[in-house]
Amino acid sequence: MRASAALQEIYNRLLAHFGPQHWWPGDSPFEVMIGAVLTQNTNWCNVEKAIANLKAAELLSPAALSALPLETLAEYIRPAGYHNLKAARLKNLLALIKEQGGVEDLLNQPTTALRELLLAVKGIGPETADSIVLYAASKPIFVVDTYTNRILMRHELISEDSDYFQIQDLFMDNLKEDVALFNEYHALLVRVGKKFCGKSKPKCEDCPLNRLGKS
């Protein structure tokens, strides 16, 4: 099965099985940006607790977080794990936002320029940067994560040594460049990855992608 046909079948099956995912949860582009940093190496339930702390203290704005001492910020986001490290990364992101004239001015940059600015921030890698580009700026870039890698490798669409950008190119080259599609597709891969495609014990028989390309 050609890559384009396989990717389309994966999407169709997952959408039929799970329905729309309405991802990414966040009340504003800035909240999405904060969540993208906080979700590194943790699950979303922990991120929600950290964001709830910031909201309860009325701190979820660039100005409020920038004025907050690093150690205090770290305590507010403690539920997200690696709180000292992530507080420093958030401060780096806040510095970029200020340098670019605010959230709106930053996110209005062309896709390539925005991505380069984000990747230059210490602590922001490709997945975090692309999550911000797609979900906060609503620009068409495909986000690749551990689930994406695992699912595609198990279905022999990529090799073990495929890197982030090669996997991303597979989607970008074979799918229509569309924000809504990339948003939904990534969310569906996360959903099936969590429910069926575990690292050590995949539940292949019950997975909606079972016998992909053979039906």
TrEMBL record:
GO MF annotation: an example: catalytic activity
Keyword 4Fe-4S: yes
InterPro entries xref list: DNA_glycosylase, HhH-GPD_domain, HhH_base_excis_C
Keywords (A to Z) from UniProt: 4Fe-4S, Iron, Iron-sulfur, Metal-binding
Domain of life: Bacteria
SUPFAM superfamilies documented for this protein: DNA-glycosylase
Record flagged with keyword Plastid: no
Gene Ontology biological-process entries: base-excision repair
Name used for this protein in its record: DNA-3-methyladenine glycosylase III
Organism: Candidatus Electronema aureum
